[in-house]
Amino acid sequence: MKFLKASITFILSIIIATSAAAIAGAVAKAETNSINVTLYKDKNLDVIKDDGNFSYSAKVTGNKKAVIVDTEYGDTYTGFRIIGNKLTGSKRATVKIIKTNNITDKSETVKTYKISVKKPKVKKLATIKLSKGQKMVGAIKNDFCRECKLKVRNTKIVKPNGGCPDINTDRDVQLLTFNAKKKGSTTADVYIKNTKVGKVKIKVGAYKPYVDSKNKNVTLKYNSHGRAEDYYGFSEYLRNYDYRIFDKLTYKTDSKYITYNKDDLYPFTINRTGSTTISICHKNKKLASIKAKIKTAKMADVFSNNLGGESDGDFLNYEHCVSYSTNTTYDVFDNINSIVLNNKRKGTNFSKSDYKITYKSNDESTATIDEYGVAHINPAALQAGSVSFKYTIKFSDKSVYTGTYKILVQ
Predict the structure, then answer these.
(1) Distance of CA 284 to CAs 209, 216, 287, 296, 398, Å?
(2) Do 99 and 138 have their domain in common?
(3) Residue 291 domain-assigned (yes or no)
(4) Distance between CA atoms of 153 and 200, rounded to whole angstroms?
(5) Last residue of a domain, one of 268, 297, 326
(6) 347 lies in which domain range?
(7) How many domains does the chain have?
(8) Which of 217, 289, 387, 401 is the one with CA 20 to 30 A from 246?
């Protein structure tokens, strides 16, 4: 009997151990998901927080031509989205998210996606209304990642003239110009490559310029510490006007809320919160208007909006080059302050009571950083090539910004 009990106990221990090993193996195995994507549309695939110790990439296998993976690298994250490029049928595409250790170069697959690309349904789109004339601006809804082309059934009434490359607009709207020849109505079939994705009615008549219903109300941002968002213009919301007057459009605003100066790089200055109206004009004649609601922006929005760019020459979100051969220091805070927090040309102004910054080195063997934002760089950094620091700014309005400051050591 004792022998029997011992045998049973031994067998049970083996079963339990085997089960535990199977569970452990299941946990270690890369997660697999199945996703459907519409042809020529995109879908967010994954966003991974990045602490600087690892890098992430995507690999397509199986039906490689079916999807395109778009990778976006941020200061603290790596993002992936997929675009349906070709119908898959029964042969699905596989996308693997690969994690690589930046020190050991060891890689592993952390997630796997099985992708099916489906054909889009044909949609009936909102009517385009135009006045008789050449290069009249119209718009169609386009939430695809490719430009649509129109095949007009009756070109004696209206004929597509081409796109509006100088106008930046919402991602789900495509602006087009038309030669509206005579009054009447017709239908245009909407295609992306050889795939029909919609149809739209086009009317030519005595219509005034107008703003689409979805754009009649906009929300703007205001913060006393600087620009929380840059506003270049609102003419992209305008429909049914001669495209040749695009660069001659002006705006009328209530200066108590918004100041407009057409000669500025950013022609709109937001002065306070509240509600007001922006009029789109040509030769002092109002063509259409937009109602604007101005809300208080977060301090972190001001910081994020002023990190830098080609037009202003002050960059914080890129590698700063330095040349050192011995132990030395580098004032990270001084750059953060002069480039973003207090930059007269950008119009930013923060006092010390408005924020608190904390810092962390991504590799203390090459560099450390103290509470004052002063980096102490080791000669080892010369072999490493670069050093980086994570900084977190907590503002007095409880908003937070986290970024990475990179120094290229030469």
Answers:
(1) 15, 20, 9, 31, 43
(2) no
(3) yes
(4) 11
(5) 297
(6) 300-409
(7) 4
(8) 217
Contact between residue 80 and residue 69 where contact means Cβ atoms under 8 Å apart: yes
The pTM (predicted TM-score) of the whole model is 0.80
186 and 88, same structural domain? no
- Token code pair at residue 6: 């011992």
Amino acid in the structure at residue 93: A
DSSP codes, 152-172: ES-TTTEEEEEE-TT----TT
Same domain, 371 and 403: yes
DSSP symbol at 139: E
Amino acid at 335: N
CA neighbor of 109 nearest in space, from 63, 73, 57: 57
- Bridge pairing between strands 319-322 and 400-409: parallel
Virtual CA dihedral for 197, 202, 208, 210, nearest 10 degrees? Answer: -10
Residue 304's H or E segment, with its range, is helix 299-305
Tokens 């219903």 sit on residue: 213
The answer to whether 59 touches 96, Cβ cutoff 8 Å, is: yes
pLDDT by residue for the chain (410 residues), tens digit each? Answer: 444 444 444 444 444 444 444 444 444 566 789 999 999 999 999 899 877 778 899 999 999 999 999 999 876 789 999 999 999 999 999 999 999 987 788 999 999 999 999 999 999 999 999 999 999 999 999 999 999 999 999 999 999 998 887 776 777 899 999 999 999 999 999 999 999 999 999 999 999 999 988 889 999 999 999 999 999 889 889 999 999 999 999 999 999 999 999 888 889 999 999 999 999 999 999 999 999 999 999 999 999 999 986 555 678 877 788 877 777 889 999 999 999 999 998 999 999 999 999 999 988 988 999 999 999 998 877 777 888 899 999 999 999 999 889 888 87
